[in-house]
Amino acid sequence: MADITGIDGEAIVRAARLLGEGGLVAIPTETVYGLAADATNGLGVARIFEAKGRPRFNPLICHVSSIAMAERFVDIDPVSRRLIDAFWPGPLTLVLPLKQNATVHPLVTAGLSTLALRMPRGVAAEVIAMLDSPLAAPSANTSGRISATTAQAVADDLGAKVDLILDGGLCPVGLESTIIKVEGDTISLLRPGGLAAEEIEALMGKALKRMDQRAAIEAPGMLASHYAPGAAMRLDVREIHPGEALLAFGPSRARGAENAAHHLNLSETGDLREAAVHLFDYMKRLDATDAALIAVEPIPHEGLGEAINDRLARAAAPRG
Q1: Does one domain contain both 26 and 87?
Q2: Is 114 annotated as a binding residue?
Q3: What is the DSSP letter of 272?
Q4: Quick check: 190 and 181 in contact, CB under 8 A?
Q5: Is 80 annotated to bind ligand?
Q6: Contact by Cβ (8 Å): 36, 25
Q7: Pair 200, 291 in one domain
Q8: Which whole-number Å values give the CA distances from 306 to 53, 197, 299, in the listed order?
Q9: Is 143 annotated as a binding residue?
Q10: What distance in Å separates the CA atoms of residue 106 and residue 136, rounded to the nearest whole number?
């Protein structure tokens, strides 16, 4: 049975101690719950892959509590520094060149010469600062399945595979971080996420290069099939078939919505930020109804809609 505790000073001390001993702790961040291990501890990192059933070729994001900690492990170019100054702490991950003497375990980088780094807000940053070591922390769920945005979702999925779950309530962003890589004059969007690409483009005064889903894996979240429920999914639906579960969006319904066996609305008002917060939680709830198929109404692609549609497309992709 999973050990879930509320967040206070004692819980933070306990989490840091467990991580220092090679343990696994599920920690809430502003994006989703992370399955954390000390990124310099090979046994701890190996336990992440074991608990998630995650492919070893899929790299992990490292979380730091300060820019100074980041600089212990990576080289930061001027463009990336500008992004850090604007958006850290927050839902932005940068893929940066790994320093030769960096002590991050090779399992974290999956053999790449780069490291994906993010600075989270809140309790995650407090635990990292107390440990004084970065945390490797992919989403706290079985690999390829729906990401967890509540402590109970972590417990339901991973259970006793985790030594401790810190319960910080519902994650306020609800989508994994946006992943960016800077190469010379090119800024590539490796994964859309909780920071809208338009915000980055407005700061930098240039368009981001979008990556093809078939591109080589350079960062987490780039697998074609990912974030998937047990049920099949049908996207951009205009008509609901009898017995389907409906994942709705906005005030207007698709034809035949009354035929849905179950339905949840990501945002009655069509607010993309609210939809992002609810996305994974509502997918899990509809999947728990045992409906064979989840039908999803159209969601705009601008702003956070780009990341929401990315997650939905990967959730609906053919599974190997």
Answers
A1: yes
A2: yes
A3: H
A4: yes
A5: no
A6: yes
A7: no
A8: 28, 8, 9
A9: no
A10: 11
How far apart are alpha carbons 81 and 117 in whole angstroms? Answer: 12
- In angstroms, what CA-CA distances link 97 with 68, 85, 103, 109? 15, 18, 14, 11
For residue 217, is pLDDT > 60? no
State which residues form the domain around 275. Answer: 232-316
Residues 116 and 31 in one domain: yes
Max alpha carbon distance in the chain (Å)?
Answer: 61
191 a known binding residue? yes
158 with 142: CB under 8 angstroms?
yes
**Residue 301 annotated as part of some ligand binding site:** no
Within this chain, do residues 151 and 278 fall inside the same structural domain, yes or no?
no
> Based on the structure, what is the number of domains in the chain?
2
Q: Check which CATH number belongs to the domain holding 289 and give it.
A: 3.40.50.11030
Residue 226 lies in a domain: no
- Judge whether 217 lies within some domain: no
The reply, when asked if residue 118 is annotated as ligand binding, is yes
Residue type at position 267 = S
The beta strands (E) that lie in 110-160 are given as 114-118, 135-136
Average pLDDT over every residue of 82-89:
98
What pLDDT digit, counting tens, does each position of 133-161 carry?
999 999 999 988 899 999 999 999 999 99
Q: Are 74 and 97 in contact (CB under 8 A)?
A: yes
Is 224 inside any structural domain?
no
- 147 labelled ligand-binding: yes
**Residue 243 is assigned to a structural domain of this protein:** yes
225 marked ligand binding residue: no
pTM of the model: 0.90
Consult the annotation and say whether 227 binds a ligand: yes
Is residue 141 marked as binding? Answer: no
**201 and 238 assigned to the same domain:** no
The closest of 17, 139, 12, 134 to 64, measured between CA atoms, is 134
Same domain, 196 and 256: no
Same domain, 36 and 156: yes
Q: Under 8 Å CB-to-CB from 41, ≥6 apart: which residues?
A: 19, 20, 22, 105
